[in-house]
Amino acid sequence: MVYEIALGFWILAVTGSTALMGSLMAASSLPRILVSPFAGVIVDRGDRRWILTLMDLIRGLAVILVAWAAFAGRIQVWMVFAAGVILGTCGAFFSPAVGSATPDLVPAIGSCRPMPPSA
Predict the structure, then answer these.
(1) Closest to 22 measured CA to CA, from 34, 12, 14
(2) Helices marked H in the chain
(3) Rg (CA), the chain
(4) SS3 of 46, please?
(5) pLDDT < 50 regions, the chain
(6) CA distance 40 to 48
(7) Torsion 28-31-37-38 (CA) sign
(8) Using a CB cutoff of 8 Å and minimum separation of 24, what contacts does 76-79 make?
(9) How much is the pLDDT for 62?
(10) DSSP one-letter code for 31
(11) Beta carbons of 50 and 107 less than 8 angstroms apart
(12) With 0-12 CB in 10 A as exposed, 13-18 as middle and 19+ as buried, what is 100?
């Protein structure tokens, strides 16, 4: 989420356009809004570990490619928009996967067994 905000401020710093910054924020949020209902169903029916890993991998690649383009001096506004859409779409899958995986990882209160006394 912080990276998406940083991309918006990069757009503002480079172009000076608050309209483009707002457009980037909308372009990042719109996939999350449109995909989230379907993503929740897919996450519930799929393998959460695989979904979490895949979404993190795709988001990581998007961040690395934008960073590489920035360091190479070849970054363009469309690249930042594409990264924003990718980050938003992957976030739509990642958030429900994390939320639904937490109960699988953390035992319920009262279900922990006490440790046996040591000999």
Answers:
(1) 12
(2) 2-15, 18-45, 48-71, 77-105
(3) 19
(4) coil
(5) none
(6) 11
(7) negative
(8) 77/11, 77/14, 77/15, 77/20
(9) 95
(10) H
(11) no
(12) middle
Place of tokens 């594409």: 82
Phi, psi of 20, rounded to the nearest 5 degrees: -65, -40
Q: Distance between alpha carbon 107 and the CA centroid of its chain, in Å?
A: 26
Residue 80's closest CA among 17, 23, 18?
Answer: 23
Alpha-carbon distance of 9 to 24, in angstroms, equals 10
Give the residue carrying structure tokens 């910054």. 21
Choose among 65, 90, 95, 101: nearest CA to 80: 65
What number of other Cβ atoms are within 10 A of residue 28's Cβ?
A: 25
pLDDT at residue number 118 = 66
pTM of the predicted structure, to 2 decimals: 0.78
92 within 8 A of 35, measured Cβ to Cβ? yes
pLDDT given for residue 48 in this prediction: 87
20 by Cβ neighbours in 10 Å (0-12 / 13-18 / 19+) ranks as middle
Q: Which residue type is seen at 7?
A: L
Name residue 18's amino acid.
T
